[in-house]
Amino acid sequence: MSRAVFFFSEAIRALRRSAAPSIAAIVTIVVTTLLLGVLIPVLKASGDKTQDVRDQIGLNVFLFNDAARDEIDALGSELETIPHVEGVEFVSRKEAIEVLAGRVEGELSESLGELNSNPLPPSFAIDIDDPTNLGAVTASITKTGPAGDRQPISPIVDEVRDARQDASKITRVTGAVTVVLAILAVLLLIASLMLVGNTIRLSIYARRREVEVMRLVGATNWFIRWPFMIEGVIVGLAGAAVAVGILWLGKVTVVDPLSDNLNLVDSLSTMGFLPLVIILVSSAMIVSALGSGITLRRFLRV
Amino acid sequence: MALTRSRSSRGRARGHDASTRYESRTGAPAPKPPIVALKDATVVYPGGHVALERVSLEVARGEFAFVVGPTGCGKSTLIKLLIREVEPASGDVEIAGHDINEMPHKRVPKLRRRIGTVFQDFKLLPNRTVYDNVAYALQVIGESRSEIRRKTPEIIRLVGLQSKIHNYPDQLSGGEQQRVSIARAFVNHPPLLLADEPTGNLDPETSIGIMQLLYRINRTGTTVLVVTHDREMVDKMRRRVIQLEEGRLIRDEVSGGYHDESTREFAARLARELDVEPSTGVNDILDW
Predict the structure, then answer these.
(1) Is B196 within the bounds of a domain?
(2) What pTM did the predictor assign?
């Protein structure tokens, strides 16, 4: 117990006595943690968005307005038998207009009410297990006829439409963004880890004589190492605390007001602030404590 | 471990009159192994330089011995060998009967705690006061805080630095720094004290003070081994002299006669023979 107190006071003493290198180490950790704190939610959000888009991909089979009830039912059960189809939902003309009315607001929804007839056809909304099977399912619905033209499986089918072009574009863009961000994040992380390691190494190098003397009076390696590790933890904690403070300010002043107005930003806050803070603080502490410990090894060789 | 045994026996002996202690040490055949024993020790540095070549010697408990020789003769290597800063290419190094190169790495700090070491360049911790420098040696061995508070000022008083107890090393003279270094080496009361050129950076008057301090420590029962190239000082001290040249032991003789003189007599004789006036600082220690 008294040993822990001794190690702690040794660490504090070292921090006070070498204020400049300590502050340099803290600043590098602030920068690294800030980068991580911005990049982690952005990466996670872009990943979520991609998943979102993939989940939404489905197929719409539009029917002619005069399709009879029994024909619709027959088509519906036939669609369900197609492989890779996960769900088939019939959307009547009435439902279609209600969905549309729900999506648009203001003047547009008023003008919808002014229509004296419903312009929307009935349709089937088909869910597919995986977007890559979109083509196969479409081909099953519109079979290629003997003359080479494409023929729907039922005469009531007017048109088969999928959001494939849009979807693949979105997945490609978000995928590219994710890759670029990930590479950027890894590079920044490596650079700042080296920076942190270097700063710690400098501050220990300045005290290598001290370490040598400690060894000569019979201090065990861990007896020398503990204060340095605790010092590293304190530096990491201080750096992470400052960075988290800045992140919190940014969240309150920029992200939160935006997310009230924009749906897009909303997905940015999919990651809870608390787990993010825990990840940042603990990794900053571990990195700087390990950095100190590993750097010391070189001076501790007997 | 034998080192621990010797420590407690010395503690008992400290109460006795110095002369009876000396007799008891020489009268009965010593059952314990010598504190230092080198057997054909050879040290080769990377690059092929042979620093020590087949050196064999023994130092008995309670002895005061000098190691002399020109620069580069292997004196400092000898000290490094004894605290296992270097390892011999061949031969054995035994401290209190234990081959120190057989012991696992983990035990090396424990060995060093039982050997006080004084260096020419003092090797004090620059960011610590006199008090903290001495206390560090106690903190290292896990001494309780109350013991540290008791022992540290005591030993600082013994080396005559009580007025500078809260000064930093760079505020002290060379002689004062060397005294701090001796206080740190001796605060654990090790059975063996090694001094590598302890007076190398000091003027003759200050050197006497340091030698006197080492002599005083020797009289508490601690074996003291002093490496030096100060031939004049060695001749006047009339103690055992181990001479090295180019890594080989070329002389090992005891020029005795003054074993039982008191610290005061010792200092006075030394000052007389070296033709210097003992400083007042030295007189402080005489009262110890």
Answers:
(1) yes
(2) 0.66
Chain A residues touching B136 at Cβ < 8 A: 214, 217
- Tell me: do B141 and B65 sit in the same domain: no
| Domain limits, chain A | 2-53+169-300, 58-162
SS3 assignment, position B54 = strand
Kindly report the backbone phi and psi dihedral angles of residue B214, in degrees, each rounded to the nearest multiple of 5, phi listed first: -65, -40
Backbone angles phi, psi at A268, to 5 degrees: -65, -30
Interface mutation vs chain A, best among B80, B132, B136, most A CBs within 10 Å? B136
Cβ separation of A218 and B127 shorter than 8 Å? Answer: no
Q: Does domain A58-162 have CATH number 3.30.360.10?
A: no
pLDDT digits (tens), chain A, 302 positions? 578 888 898 888 888 877 887 888 888 889 888 888 888 777 777 766 666 666 666 778 888 888 788 888 888 888 888 888 888 888 888 788 777 776 665 566 666 666 767 778 888 888 877 767 777 777 777 776 666 666 777 778 887 777 655 666 666 777 777 788 888 878 877 887 787 777 777 777 777 888 888 888 888 888 888 888 888 889 889 999 999 999 888 888 877 776 665 554 444 445 677 888 888 888 888 888 887 778 788 777 65
Q: What is d(CA A143, CA A164) in angstroms, rounded to the nearest whole number?
A: 19
The reply to whether residue A210 touches residue B126, judged by beta carbons under 8 angstroms, is yes
d(CA B50, CA B48): 6
The answer to whether B121 faces chain A, any CB pair under 8 Å, is no
Q: Is B145 in contact with A219 (Cβ distance < 8 A)?
A: no
ipTM of the complex, rounded to two decimals: 0.71
Answer whether A19 touches B (CB < 8 Å): no
